[in-house]
Structures
1.
Amino acid sequence: MTDLVLSDAMAHARRRLDAALDAAGRPAGEARLLAVSKTKPAGLIREAWQLGQREFGENYVQEALDKQAELADLTDIVWHFIGPLQSNKTRDVAEHFAWVHSVDRKKIARRLNDQRPADQAPLEVCLQVNISEEASKSGAFLDELPALAEAVLILPRLRLRGLMAIPAPAEGLAEQRAPFARLREALEDLRVRFPEARLDTLSMGMTADLEAAVQEGATLVRLGTAIFGERHRPTP
Ligand SMILES: *Cc1c(COP(=O)(O)O)cnc(C)c1O
């Protein structure tokens, strides 16, 4: 991908987000763009950074660490870990990311808390929800959220910020909106239960369903293909 194509794609993605916010009657800037760079080379992330993008999402720990090392001079990049998280990878995530969107069980949360270095800010956390209740998918079920949120809120090195979901693919705006509405309601419920927590993040919406997610209150949309083009290796 040449510079020109990336800058076009980035401008188009920003316009698409602005238009979705406008159509939803929401103020410009109320949702921000997370550029999902999994499988894409560090050089492309650098180009996106030069175009003003600062927040990037990665799914694979080792791949992310390699790219972070190459981009160490870009000190204001904010790295988000958005992939499935196994216990043996929590230390790398705790040490090398600002955010993690895929916390779905207490054991992972406790490990991240224990491994977050003392000289770094608390790790910003979203709980991943299996919103379409798919048997093989990661994420906590809705009825597990209050107990999981309570457990995360007492961990001092984590800061619970909200919820993340990847709904089952659906065609049509109404069908796409339904699971996002459930996620929004789940966050509203947590806000009532834990009024002192700063629960301000709904991480939802990808290339195929950004508009539906923004209609339902997304504050962080995770765009990969729309910014960087098709990926040529399978993703989990
Ligand atoms: C790959 C991925 C994305 C980006 O998906 P696109 O359809 O390419 O926009 C967003 N979120 C998660 C968790 C992903 O794994």
2.
Amino acid sequence: MLLLNPGPVTLTERVRNSLLQADLCHRESEFFDLQDEARSRLLGVYGLDGSQWQAVLMTGSGTSALESMIAAMVPENGKLLILENGVYGERITQIATQYRIAHESVKHDWMQAIDLARVTARLDAGEGFTHVAVIHHETTTGRLNDLNALGAVCRARGVKLLVDGVSSFGAEAIDFSDTSLDAVAATANKCLHGVPGVSFVMVRRSALDAAASRTYYLDLRRLATLQDARSTPFTPAVHVFYALVEALREFEDEGGLVARHERYAALAEQVRSGFAALGVEGALPADECSVVLRAYRLPVGVDYASLHDALKARGFVIYAGQGGLSAALFRISTMGAIVGGDVVRLVEGVGGVLK
Ligand SMILES: *Cc1c(COP(=O)(O)O)cnc(C)c1O
């Protein structure tokens, strides 16, 4: 079965086999070597300087990294402006609410781009916002939000930027030299092709000094301090670390960030043009989308369940639209061990359903 959902991804044999290594005690040096390699390879994905940036690992899915980042990076007296244009932006608002972090949300229609004029107006209204949170690739619709434009707005105002990069880290450009950028949350099992169970926050070291401690298990500063000292507070998902490290070695062997971006871009374009020839249109213009996942309009007279089931019978798992979009859209991710021949068969499958 090939997974065309936005994580977990179809594994390569190399990563799958890496799960079958020696049993490890997480208090032995072998585990800390593994943890160190994961952390330094994560820095390497974007060529980051370890004296300025730190990769902080945690056991849990992408949302745990997101929760850890939001709970820590907005200081006790800070105030967060959350930009919502999909399910994941809403999730950040739910996290901020849960931790009673002072916040406000700028809500957009899920199909809309972030309205920078509205964001600027909120930041300039004199209400003391210290941080902005945004989703890089809003997986709800496939939209890639423009971090560069937003970073410029934040830099000009001395406001710090917190990014959910869960479905973009490893495949889309992120400008870590943007001085407004304080942290990016991401996960092992999306564009990096690991298995689910480990996620991480890339955090600017200097920004950790002001971090709050609102959560016990996901306390970012404690995790950061202990991992720097070759330690860990709790039992990590050891086997998932094996897979993450192997996936990062494979990522490097395949040419790193640029190569992964290009590979996804080619697959996404192959899906787009194949579907277009069948009359199945993208929900957003391709140049506003990530290369990771795209949303498509369900053809008239085809409901999602029958499309899903027919494709599953042919070996593909596609993904539904979320919330109010579930009746109108379906989504195709091309992360993981997917090749051009798979896309040819997918397009044939969709063509078969339409007939
Ligand atoms: C997948 C995803 C998450 C996290 O999902 P988990 O199920 O917790 O791994 C968060 N944000 C975005 C943008 C995502 O695509």
